[in-house]
Specification:
The chain is mainly α. The chain has five helices and four strands; from the N terminus they run ββαααβααβ. The strands form two sheets. It has a two-stranded antiparallel sheet with strand order 1-2.
Length: 198
């Protein structure tokens, strides 16, 4: 159980922070950068929740996003706790394969109602869609960092973290289109739109 009764501890004044194991690392350590970016993604998801909650027709989407915010905290805890060689299944809070797999039918359900695309979608359209696209790009950055962390410290980093972030960014793309009047209000990229005519 998490208990926070003091917000400042002064232990980070030297530029270090504690992992969940108690190990002290630099605040710019790749692992800290990775779970910090997951936290940032969760904050952007919170903005998307607020934007979607203001639109009654997006109530189901709002519920989905709120649920995923809990998964992102699980993921942050996972990344903040290096995997130990003798770790037993269920011993630590880890993002689970089932949490990633749960996203796929949600993607399919929302995507099935959308028309196919013939160009890339510009972030924007409606406020909820813009917020979802912003969240998507932060999730993509978290994914890139998780890939980098896996490459540098694969023995101590969950592979499921990468899968979850990859799937979540796909979901946020689809939800961004749904929030744009089921794609009808999508603003499509026009290649070379502002290039001078020769």
């Amino acid at each position: 159980m998490v208990k926070l009764n003091r917000i400042y501890t002064r232990t980070g004044d030297d530029g270090t922070t504690g992992l969940a194991t108690g190990e002290r690392v630099a605040k710019d350590d790749l692992r800290v950068e990775c779970y910090g970016t997951v936290d940032e993604a969760n904050s952007f998801l919170g903005l998307a929740v607020v934007a979607c909650a203001a639109v009654p027709s997006l109530a189901e989407m709002t519920d989905v996003l709120r649920s995923i915010q809990h998964d992102l905290f699980d993921l942050g805890a996972d990344l903040a706790t290096p995997v130990s060689p003798d770790e037993k299944p269920g011993q630590r809070l880890r993002i689970q394969h089932a949490q990633t797999d749960r996203l796929e039918p949600i993607i399919d359900r929302f995507n099935d109602a959308l028309a196919s695309l013939n160009s890339f979608v510009l972030p924007g359209g409606s406020p909820p869609s813009a917020a979802l696209h912003a969240a998507r790009t932060v999730v993509r950055r978290a994914e890139r960092l998780a890939v980098q962390l896996r490459r540098h410290d694969s023995q101590h980093t969950s592979a499921e973290a990468v899968r979850f972030l990859n799937r979540l960014s796909d979901l946020l793309f689809v939800l961004g289109r749904v929030a744009n009047d089921m794609g009808a209000a999508d603003v499509l990229w026009v290649p070379g739109a502002n290039r001078p005519q020769s």
